[in-house]
């Protein structure tokens, strides 16, 4: 689904639908010994009222059409899935399926990929709309959850401040601590969003919005050392706003972040001056900015905040419709030359979203297309770039459109 909460606010009236087909089951895996490749992907399909999770192979071929859904009765699923659901972008180290039920529900669900059995559920609202945005296993017993929301009246119960990374015990399924995110501008909340690994540290992007989304600060990346649960560095992104997850190249030597800029809620247009992709040298920490590509102004768009490396020098990126283009667009960016190649264009805005690339593990990139209700696919090679493959149909049982993709 669309990652920026400002858009998710349009769909807060999430509710369950009539009973759906029973789960189509899990997938047996041998544990992937000796392989650094992910085993599969979880695709969130949703109409923002109900949700179905599809499990597909790395090349987009469906393996389980309805791993779990809002309407399916599932033993152990005491809190049914709403319509505002996401999955972690990075594959959980525990090999479990992790589901984040966001605004209005505020629950983390762990499931077994092999059996589709619910292992546990943990409410993390702690008395307010915490709006969990991402999840990352940091070791065999702990995980971080980024809570986008900030509690305007904390102090009623433990860990109820928000604007933080919650520390979870993933054996007891309990909250054990929190790491508050920094914010120095009055009236601006940190809005911790997407997380990524970088050389043993966890980097979280801060959305930095006011409570009414009328004001925003420039982008900010914050790194946390899992060994101490302490912030070890901060990198600001001057002049750009609403920045997403730090995408790391296959070698780990480069990283990039995309920023959308502030959306004008009257004109429904983005400010291209505040939108771009920034490339970093990550052989040093904190990362050193190498280059900006001036893409917002060149393309007259607001870039979507989620990007991913398809190869060491190729990035798959998206733009929102509503500015220079009526609909969303997908494009490839060559980080060496700055060349931009358009890959796909949709007839409407807010229909392309959710991506996954598997460099060195089949080299296929996937992109959710809610308008077509398909996964668009490309095979990436050094010689020919992004070669289009046939679109993949996700499921024929429920038929909800794809919104988000996470590794498994």
From TrEMBL:
<dbReference type="InterPro" id="IPR011044">
    <property type="entry name" value="Quino_amine_DH_bsu"/>
</dbReference>
<protein>
    <submittedName>
        <fullName>PQQ-like beta-propeller repeat protein</fullName>
    </submittedName>
</protein>
<keyword id="KW-0732">Signal</keyword>
<feature type="signal peptide">
    <location>
        <begin position="1"/>
        <end position="19"/>
    </location>
</feature>
<dbReference type="InterPro" id="IPR015943">
    <property type="entry name" value="WD40/YVTN_repeat-like_dom_sf"/>
</dbReference>
